[in-house]
């Protein structure tokens, strides 16, 4: 690696100042480089010295005043109150906090930017108010600057002002007064903010205007983009012989005016007149020919998975390494993907990506429903999210009980009165009657979480820090809310989310050891042997949008305020400077095109690839493709403990084998093992689509209700009598749905939306079954109906040369005799189906086989065999009532060989018995 920038700075400091650095201040843009410069100074000096004083630029300027810093929320409430005072003076109605909040953030941001760049406040806002003042107000501006302003107003004032435009014109006229009174309010309260500190210093109004004179020399290290206050003070201190500047730059982009990465340092040197203490910048990038590794991942998160594998290959290397997040939203996926390394993270772990925020956000969602809209029911998703959240600490027994009740009753909404479970957050679902109590209630929730975390064996410091910072912010909000009229709960929730969103907790390790993780902006001044840049997509690097502002680009350009091109130049510099020093350069981007990504790498990469001598090694992530012939089937061998368990269950204890269990085995022996041998049950669940088995149960029971009065009668009953049942179908189905979901239903309106859909479908299916019988038969006699107790049949099997018996078990839906219109009497076994089953099959051999092509036929033959063996009745025809198809296809099974009746049926029944004896024992 080239000699690191801070090592060069340390060497120059020793040459210039010797061993006594006690009267020297060294100033950086951020804290991170301070530790590294201290390390390099210790290496360069190799002995004890009088240390210099280290500051960030804000800490350094902060020494010019004793005023306390006003928090963003405090500034917001000051601004709100002053604005309403001005409206009253103008004879207008005061605005509510809800009305003012959306523009307050923009106003404060604009005020700050105008201060940093020393823009005349009244002048710029008057220009916004009235374009007719251009010639008078801007006589001192160049022709080009005046043209910028004229272009703006030509586009704005085409045909007079709409109501909204008029409102903004009045606001812009008011803003200079608002600005001055806002500053007066801060001063009166003994408060300040950084824009005020900066402007006061530049204009000679600071309390300690000469604070810099207490240092013999001030060294400004690694600065790039300067605002006008910094440029003015830096130049002044340089002229006084007090300031030195160390610029980290490369001739590759500094001397080429087409390179945006050098924009600000060129401006610092050639326009502001600052001198680089390190002399002329070398052309390092232009002469390098090393390899840059470029990785296109198949998704945003996949970048972190790729990085894991690469870090595994390099983790034993004795070199410095850093992961730079161009997209800082990748922090949490990155932490979840890191191999066994020691990370030091200065970006901070964001509250918004922590489990804590998930719970706070859920609480706000709950109270929007139960406190704002006064609803007394919550969706089951909210309840399940809460009980499954690790911080709610609901017991496993309570979780399982709640999930079972929701699934059994299919509760899509749950009343507050039904919520009976213990939690570490007992007030979570208690409605807030007064909107003024919202923030205190949320503070109480945070206290409960702090208490819950502190009671655990291992205190989670990151969670603790996040909660403490959240509580501080909420207390500030509470103080502000006390000064304004009552606010709606929905608005307070919106403001709370905005206020707590920036909170984060540092995850600190050793800043000089292990792998360093930071944003690109934090990497200023720092150099590493290996860098890994994540999220290097166009649209992210550089960003394609600026912060919201009321000052249009035309005026921003005229006054020299930052515009989007400035942001691009800063991003380019932060990216390019790592190509000066690092040997191992690895860049990752999302190569997948989706709604949030173009799938393209940053244009900075394309520029370097085209213009520089670096060799770009492109790698595209490929997802592994598995082909069916290579997929390995999971096989559970029927031996050892498995066979012992099967023998115990099915032979010794005669555990019953149903038709469903048989077809499960045919379709998937593994699934049969899990369900019927390992006894692993599916967890209870609630579907947004009603369960087909629940629909089937409803239909079976309704059909039983309809035919039960006819069971056991010796004489045949005319099918026309069933027409009288059609009008009663809806009542039957409604009552049965209530039974299935364990709810009292008096009429259709008591059903939820999915239950109403089930009602309509079930009614249509039952009606179809009845109409089929009416149309195709003259009369009927019911022999058996929904019998689930009497049909257990011992069935002999040969296992390892020995005969054993298992128990077959059939639930007989319906056995009847019907008289056709040509006076034939047919004995039938009827099976109702509500799914996509079919009576059609191709080859009978494919029916009696693994992965059977007609599961319904196997099941119906199974029922027929059990019934015939138990009752002695023969020649039962298997009929399948598939509501979707029976009108077109009928109910009798048929295939190439013919329809399953008479001799063909008798022959296939024998084949089925042979198959039933042979297949399940084939591996024994």
From TrEMBL:
The answer to whether the entry has keyword Glycoprotein is: no
Report the domain of life of the source organism.
Bacteria
Q: Which GO terms describe its molecular function?
A: DNA helicase activity; hydrolase activity
Q: Name one Pfam family in it.
A: PDDEXK_1
Ranges for domain PD-(D/E)XK endonuclease-like come to 657-874
Q: What is its EC number?
A: 3.1.-.-, 3.6.4.12
| This protein's UniProt keywords | ATP-binding, Helicase, Hydrolase, Nucleotide-binding
Name listed for the protein in its UniProt record:
ATP-dependent helicase/nuclease subunit B
Organism classification:
Bacteria, Pseudomonadati, Bacteroidota, Sphingobacteriia, Sphingobacteriales
């Amino acid at each position: 690696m080239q000699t690191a920038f801070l090592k060069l700075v340390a060497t120059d400091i020793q040459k210039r100042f010797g061993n006594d650095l006690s009267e020297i201040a060294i100033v950086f843009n951020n804290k991170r480089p301070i530790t590294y410069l201290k390390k390099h100074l210790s290496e360069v000096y190799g002995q004890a010295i009088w240390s210099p004083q280290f500051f960030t630029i804000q800490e350094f300027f902060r020494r010019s005043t004793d005023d306390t810093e006003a928090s963003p929320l405090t500034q917001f409430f000051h601004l709100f109150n002053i604005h309403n005072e001005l409206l009253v003076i103008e004879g207008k109605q005061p605005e509510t906090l809800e009305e003012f909040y959306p523009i307050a953030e923009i106003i404060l941001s604009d005020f700050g930017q105008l201060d940093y760049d020393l823009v005349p406040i009244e002048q710029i806002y008057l220009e916004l108010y009235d374009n007719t003042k251009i010639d008078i107000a801007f006589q001192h501006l160049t022709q080009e600057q005046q043209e910028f302003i004229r272009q703006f107003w030509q586009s704005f004032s085409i045909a007079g002002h709409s109501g909204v435009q008029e409102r903004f014109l009045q606001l812009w006229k008011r803003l200079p007064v608002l600005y001055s009174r806002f500053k007066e309010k801060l001063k009166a309260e003994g408060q300040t903010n950084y824009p005020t500190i900066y402007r006061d210093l530049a204009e000679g109004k600071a309390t300690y205007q000469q604070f810099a004179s207490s240092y013999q020399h001030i060294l400004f290290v690694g600065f790039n983009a300067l605002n006008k206050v910094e440029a003015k003070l830096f130049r002044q201190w340089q002229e006084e012989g007090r300031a030195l500047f160390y610029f980290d730059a490369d001739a590759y982009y500094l001397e080429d005016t087409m390179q945006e990465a050098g924009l600000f340092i060129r401006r610092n040197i050639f326009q502001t007149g600052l001198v680089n203490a390190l002399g002329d910048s070398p052309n390092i990038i232009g002469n390098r020919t090393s390899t840059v590794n470029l990785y296109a991942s198949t998704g945003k998160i996949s970048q972190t998975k790729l990085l894991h594998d690469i870090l595994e290959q390099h983790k034993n290397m004795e070199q410095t390494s850093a992961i730079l997040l161009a997209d800082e939203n990748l922090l949490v996926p990155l932490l979840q993907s890191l191999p066994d390394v020691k990370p030091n993270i200065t970006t901070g772990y964001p509250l918004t990506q922590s489990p804590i925020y998930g719970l706070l956000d859920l609480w706000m969602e709950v109270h929007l429903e139960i406190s704002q809209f006064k609803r007394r029911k919550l969706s089951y998703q909210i309840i399940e999210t809460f009980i499954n959240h690790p911080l709610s600490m609901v017991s496993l027994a309570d979780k399982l009980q709640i999930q079972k009740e929701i699934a059994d009753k299919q509760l899509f909404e749950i009343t507050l009165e039904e919520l009976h479970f213990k939690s570490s957050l007992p007030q979570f679902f208690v409605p807030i009657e007064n909107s003024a109590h919202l923030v205190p209630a949320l503070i109480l929730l945070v206290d409960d979480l702090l208490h819950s975390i502190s009671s655990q064996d291992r205190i989670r410091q990151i969670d603790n820090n996040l909660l403490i910072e959240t509580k501080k912010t909420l207390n500030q909000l509470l103080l502000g809310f006390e000064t304004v009229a009552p606010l709606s709960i929905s608005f307070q929730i919106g403001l709370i989310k905005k206020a707590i969103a920036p909170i984060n907790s540092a995850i600190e390790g050793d800043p000089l050891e292990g792998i360093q993780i930071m944003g690109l902006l934090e990497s200023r001044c720092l150099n590493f042997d290996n860098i890994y840049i994540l999220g290097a997509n166009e649209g992210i690097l550089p960003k394609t949008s600026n912060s919201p502002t009321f000052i249009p680009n035309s005026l921003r350009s005229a006054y020299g305020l930052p515009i989007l091109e400035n942001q691009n130049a800063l991003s380019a510099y932060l990216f390019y400077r790592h190509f000066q020093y690092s040997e191992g350069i690895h860049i990752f981007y999302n190569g997948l095109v989706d709604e949030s990504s173009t799938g393209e790498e940053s244009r900075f990469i394309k520029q370097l690839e085209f213009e520089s001598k670096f060799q770009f090694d492109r790698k595209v992530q490929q997802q592994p493709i598995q082909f069916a012939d290579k997929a390995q089937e999971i096989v559970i061998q029927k031996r050892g403990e498995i066979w012992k368990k099967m023998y115990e269950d099915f032979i010794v204890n005669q555990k019953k084998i149903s038709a469903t269990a048989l077809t499960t085995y045919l379709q998937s022996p593994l699934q049969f093992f899990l369900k019927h041998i390992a006894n692993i049950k599916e967890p209870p669940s609630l579907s947004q689509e009603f369960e087909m088995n629940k629909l089937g149960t409803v239909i079976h029971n309704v059909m039983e209700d309809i035919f039960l009065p006819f069971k056991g009668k010796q004489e045949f009953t005319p099918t026309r009598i069933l027409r009288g049942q059609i009008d009663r179908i809806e009542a039957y189905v409604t009552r049965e749905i209530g039974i299935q979901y364990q709810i009292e239903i008096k009429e259709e309106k008591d059903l939820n939306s999915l239950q109403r859909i089930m009602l309509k479908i079930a009614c249509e299916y039952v009606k179809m079954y009845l109409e089929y019988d009416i149309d195709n038969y003259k009369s009927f006699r019911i022999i058996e109906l929904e019998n689930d107790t009497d049909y257990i049949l011992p069935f002999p099997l040969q296992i390892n040369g020995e005969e054993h018996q298992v128990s077959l078990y059939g639930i007989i839906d319906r056995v009847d005799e019907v008289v056709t219109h040509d006076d034939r009497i047919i004995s039938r076994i009827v099976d109702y189906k509500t799914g996509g089953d079919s009576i059609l099959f191709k080859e009978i051999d494919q029916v009696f086989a693994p992965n059977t092509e007609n599961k319904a036929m196997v099941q119906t033959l199974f029922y027929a065999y059990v019934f015939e063996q138990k009752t002695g009745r023969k020649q039962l025809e298997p009929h399948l009532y598939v509501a979707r198809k029976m009108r077109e296809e009928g109910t009798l099974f048929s295939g190439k060989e013919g329809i399953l009746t008479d001799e063909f049926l008798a022959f296939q029944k024998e084949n089925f018995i042979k198959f039933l004896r042979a297949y399940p024992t084939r591996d024994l």
